[in-house]
Amino acid sequence: xxxxxxxxxxxxxxxxxxxxxxxxxxxxxxxxxxxxxxxxxxxxxxxxxxxxxxxxxxxxxxxxxxxxxxxxxxxxxxxxxxxxxxxxxxxxxxxxxxxxxxxxxxxxxxxxxxxxxxxxxxxxxxxxxxxxx
Length: 133
Prior knowledge:
This protein is of the alpha/beta class. It has one domain (2-131): 5'-nuclease (Rossmann fold, 3-Layer(aba) Sandwich). The chain has helices spanning 7-15, 20-33, 42-55, 58-68, 80-93, 97-108; strands at 2-5, 37-41, 74-76, 113-116, 128-131. The model has no long low-confidence stretch (mean pLDDT 97).
């Protein structure tokens, strides 16, 4: 099963305070142990790398780059079909642009699950939304 990681899940994993960092790590470890594949998009990478670049934190940026360069991490592109689906999601549900694009990327690339901390996204029916608690 493919599990799309929302940007905040990756941020929690890389730099989040406890207990969020521990919860994100434990959940991702469970997914890997079950044979599931984690996935992100170019948007996830963008959102995660802004803070370390803004702060000039080369160490944190290197940590993110290593995470995103991992060979077992699926990387989803954002072709026009993702933007078309995101437009419909944003219009129908009123989600923020980044949330709509991330959900659209997950659906367009066949992810079975979308791991997030945003409870508002639970109402989206086209992919199973799992809230990290």
